[in-house]
Amino acid sequence: MTKIIFMGTPDFSVPVLDGLIEQGYEVLAVVTQPDRAVGRKKEIKMTPVKEAALRHNLPVYQPEKISGSDEMEEIMALGADIIVTAAFGQFLPESLLKSVKHAVNVHASLLPKYRGGAPVHYAIINGDAEAGVTIMKMVKKMDAGDMISQRAIPITDTDNVGTMFEKLSLVGRELLLDTLPDYLAGKITPQPQDETQVTFSPNITPEEERIDWQLSARDIFNQVRGMSPWPVAHAIWQGTRFKLHEVALVEGEGIPGQVIEKTKKNLVIATKEGAISLVMVQPAGKPKMPIQDFLNGLGKTINIGDQFE
User: Fold this and answer.
1) Residue 141's CB: how many other CB atoms inside 10 A?
2) 78 and 28 Cβ atoms separated by less than 8 Å
3) Where along the chain do the CATH 3.40.50.170 domains lie?
4) Positive or negative, the Cα torsion across 294, 299, 303, 309?
5) What is the CATH number of domain 206-301?
6) Gap between the Cα atoms of 109 and 279, Å rounded
7) Which CATH code fits 3-197?
8) Cα of 126 vs its chain's centroid, Å
9) Where does 24-90 show beta strands of DSSP type E?
10) Which of 67, 144, 185, 264 is deepest in the core (most CB within 10 A)?
11) What would the pLDDT profile of 53-101 be if each residue is shown by its tens digit?
């Protein structure tokens, strides 16, 4: 029986781990990021992968930094055949990679496009027609290993980062389970990535979350979807951050950032080309809410001609 060390952290990783266990692979241990304080109350929360590992009664390692840690030495001593990572969130040192026969990564992009930590975000923000998952060999360089298998699915206008992660986590699980037997049997020859086609998807910066009303409505629509449900795009209203969780494309024109239509249920903002209707918003210090609730409360004072920055 193939012995596996699994490394992952967010919800995306959980179906992959569950699939390996259901398929009969022997998962010796799970490695995930440390528990973190989250939310306004700073409550300590386990990662989704840790929660899944505990459900399966698996040993869990949570090094702050795996390289050079005591945990790494223990992991290497377990005698695994293969390391499988899926959105783990740390670089693996070469000594760890060389301690097993195989090390593969389940990466949520169609490599060589979007190496890095936010491939799904960038695929949506850039208006790509499809996203996907690549199973690749792990090397010291970020997401640069030879590709073992790949599978694509379409991105629709109803998708955002959250829905695409849910879809791609299932794609990744099925692709890995379809791929591993032949790969471990030597029936698949991994293919090198075309370095001339490489693009990167670094984590979204706070500056990139800000809406630029000089963009087209389509670009802003894609930006909002590509940052929902995290980290969430925002504009400035009355000097404070105003988060846009969901918007819709509509017809209209005017000065970019200006309110061009207001009813009891709709608030439409002009862009450089076209307009967007706000659907789900979050004023500073308030919970996320439908636009109707905002217009019935804080938004009562908004008038046509007012400017969002």
Assistant:
1) 9
2) yes
3) 3-197
4) negative
5) 3.10.25.10
6) 29
7) 3.40.50.170
8) 15
9) 26-31, 36-38, 43-45, 60-61, 82-86
10) 144
11) 999 999 999 999 999 899 999 999 999 999 999 999 999 999 999 999 9
